[in-house]
Amino acid sequence: MEVKARYSDEDLEEFRGIINEKLTAAREIYNDAMRRLMNADSNSDEDTAPTYKILEEGTQALERENLIQMAQRQQKFIQGLEAALIRIENKTYGIDRITGELIPKERLRVVPHATLSVASKNARKH
Questions:
Q1: Could you tell me if 90 and 1 are in contact, meaning their C-beta atoms sit under 8 angstroms apart?
Q2: Would you state the pLDDT for residue 5?
Q3: For labelling, which of 40, 43, 67, 76 has a CA lying 20 to 30 Å from the CA of 84?
Q4: If 0-12 CB within 10 Å is exposed, 13-18 middle and 19+ buried, where does residue 43 land?
Q5: What is the pTM of this model?
């Protein structure tokens, strides 16, 4: 019978803690971005000089675009972290999905939703 390498329950609990901290922070950033997007829609438009108004609208559009991108990145990050929690439950967390080997703890502490080791990720690029 082949025993597949996996992280110990203690290690998984450590990673669960890291992921939950990052999830809390990511959700706060996401919710803040969404709040700011909602408020951007309800800004009162006082009549100002036309040139200033055009510049102002351009700046607001750019800010809005940046907020949308930030919210989308956070949403993707949150989904990645939630998927990592499921892998912890299934005890498949930290296993490189290409090689089946354990992803180094150092990498998982920095990128807790990683599904590839740095070597596998680089090999995929080339």
A1: no
A2: 87
A3: 67
A4: exposed
A5: 0.80
